[in-house]
Amino acid sequence: MSDITSIYQKDLLRSRRARLYFKLAVLFTVVVLVPAFASVIAVASALGSVLAIIIMGALVLASLGLLLLSPGVRNFFGSAAGFGETMTGVADSIVKIYVYIMPFAATLAFVFGALTLFMGIRAGKRDGGTASIVKGSVILAISLAGLIAYIVMATGGAA
Amino acid sequence: MTLTLYLRGNIKDMYVYVNGKRTLFERRSRPQLGEPSNKVARIETEGEVEISACYIPPLIFKHAFLYALAFWLAGFFGLFSPGYSKVYYSLNYTARAKIEKDETFVLEVLSPSNPKSAARGVTMYCNVPVEESGCGWVKEPKAKSRRRAYIALTVVFWLVLLAALSATLALTLL
Fold this sequence. Notes:
Strand content of chain A: under 5%
Structural class of chain B: alpha+beta
Number of domains of chain B: 1
Low-confidence stretches of chain A: 41-48
Distance between the termini of chain B: 78 Å
Shape of chain A: elongated
Mean pLDDT of chain B: 89
Low-confidence stretches of chain B: none
Structural class of chain A: mainly alpha
Largest sheet of chain A: none
Largest sheet of chain B: 6 strands, antiparallel
Mean pLDDT of chain A: 67
Number of helices of chain B: 3
Number of strands of chain B: 11
Distance between the termini of chain A: 64 Å
Number of strands of chain A: 0
Helix content of chain A: over 70%
Number of domains of chain A: 1
Oligomer: heterodimer
Largest interface: A-B, 25 and 27 residues
Helix content of chain B: 25-40%
């Protein structure tokens, strides 16, 4: 194998890694965005972490609402009373899981955002480098906002 | 001396090297008047210059299985891992030329989508004599079979996982 092909392999693997980092950064940022917004709203309205969790839960449930309320799922769960209880249980679990997942997602989004930014700086001005710098910076800012919001929320909850 | 290199043709993940260094092209929205392409690079060089264009499907790399597995795992079992191109050909083109003043080269890369353009592959247009090698695309049947196997395994994995999750949920709730 000549030199160029081995250099090419390294370059292509680096480019694929950059694409993967960006996708993961976006994924974790999306996870962070919902509670981050909810937390910011909650902090702004000075009502503490309870409202944050309620808004967060409502946003998560809104995305699952159509699925859970569809006739097929209703039939699957059985009677209306049983369905109501299951719904409450599911909502409760989702909110609990979300509160645990959020700081990890924010940290991972921060890490992958930093990697995207780093890859962009390394690529230079051309070949999508500037775009990577912008994307990485936006993700870093959002994930940082999410982390701060979570810390504020957690501190508010403890107080 | 400045070497102005234009690139015609758009093959994703095909990289161009000048004297062993990767060349990044400036992309304009459209070619300017009198220019052969909207992708241009200006390189300062002297004497002999070696221009290479390279494309190899990632699934035929050395240790391709390990790389594919690593990306598959990191990308949540193939859900977020970067996809593999449908170009089942490889290209390893090299052109050597001696330049004594500012020169303009146009590198035209044809897609391997039909046999005629696959055989022609790369054409270099310039005003100096060029020694070329590896102009045509070379078919890589391994890349095709491996890409299909990769997609099939990912789909089967997700079907099995969803079936297992549904079964667990049904058994828990009923």
